[in-house]
Amino acid sequence: MQKPLVPLLDQAVAALLHAAPGQLAGLVGRHGSPLNVVWPHILRQNVDTLRAVLRAHDVRHEIFYGAKVNKSPALVHAAVRADAGVDVSSVYELRDALGAGADPARVVATGPAKTAVFHAELLACGALISVDSCEELAALEAAVVAPARARVLLRYRPESNRNSRFGMDAAELLQCLHRLAARRASFIFEGFHCHLGGYAWQTRVQAIGELAASVAAARELDLPPRMLDIGGGLPVRYVDGDAYDAFLPAQEPADYRTGRVPTSYYPYGGRTDAASWLHNVLAAPCGDGRTVAQYLNAERLTLALEPGRSLVDQAAVTAFRVTQVKALADGKHVVFVEGSSFSACETWFGSEFLVDPLLLPSDPQRASEGAPFAAYIAGHSCLDDDVITNRILNFDRRPMPGDLLVYANTAGYQMDLLENEFHRHPMPRRIVVHVNARGAMEFSPD
């Protein structure tokens, strides 16, 4: 029997789940299941943690909250109150950011397929635009109306990501730089941008080194860059690293209702957190003997980041109410919950959320009763693949109707990436937790 992958919990989150589970049950009773519970102050703490690393290396910096990671308005407001900029990928995210009070000058648009309406609103408010291609630069130029000018970054496609459809290679960057130099009345060139898949800090260092030639080329064209934006991908630790390392190689096909072990996962129990990752980037050699931090300072460049998942680390949980437990013909058991896998998206990507849910009993007297029980978790729709976890989970006791299964740390894409109103179920609600100076919790709709 696999040992559970117990979630790491922020103190404020643990206070609700362990010290006041009745409050959570009451919230689910009033607002429905699944219920997303959000702690905005944790985002502000995460901003401060990254900012401390940047200041320790004495580099100019800008942190843009990657708003695509979560739909919560409270989290966008928290980012603005934390004096972070906002990274937007659609006109709707732009409108939300401005509605939350974001300074338009500190909004960056990074979506690769921006519409004409998106371009127009970005130009109207003076936001920074990451240009994904030579074609986008031409479209943007056609949209500029004098005397306005478009503030732009050029998006680079690093060698480690050469097969990506996003960004431009070095030759295309140079082509765009010449176009910008010839059309200074239409553009304000501010620097370069890249966004890599994966979570390795080494690839970001490599990309910075590759961009050095483009930085020099821009200066030769009298287009001095001020910013180098390396995107997001800062890792988050969800579970204890030792437990995670022991869990992965011990998995067997029988541990899954499908009889198949997924081939890839997010690094839920990675050894590097976001702050350590950022320190590693800044302290790494940059190819000429200088560290990345020394290179940035010598070139008078601002390092920009677009963290999403790492800024909402620990900032939300998702509670599902158990509706039924069923024995199946193959000897397995399934726990049905009020909610669907559209609100817990990893199975739709052929992977798993390798964080076990916490089982909170509706009747506290049952908390220590019963024998160990194993089951997978399924949603309430008519789809056979509406499965929140294909993995067979081991519980201390049999879940009962009315109990809550609480998934921790779901703010990073997990809770709302795929949510919808299938079967006309209403969209899951979000509740914001405010922790006052005395440590007491107050709740309000998001």
TrEMBL record:
Residues at the active site: 382
Residue span(s) of domain Orn/DAP/Arg decarboxylase 2 N-terminal: 53-242
Record carries keyword Magnesium: no
Cofactor(s) listed: pyridoxal 5'-phosphate
GO molecular function annotations of the record: diaminopimelate decarboxylase activity
BP term (GO), one: lysine biosynthetic process via diaminopimelate
Pfam families, per the entry: Orn_Arg_deC_N
Superkingdom, natural source: Bacteria
Cross-referenced CDD domains: PLPDE_III_Y4yA_like (cd06842)
Annotated keywords: Pyridoxal phosphate
Keyword Amino-acid biosynthesis in record: no
PANTHER family: DIAMINOPIMELATE DECARBOXYLASE, GROUP IV DECARBOXYLASE
Name this polypeptide is given: Decarboxylase
Lineage, highest ranks first: Bacteria, Pseudomonadati, Pseudomonadota, Betaproteobacteria, Burkholderiales
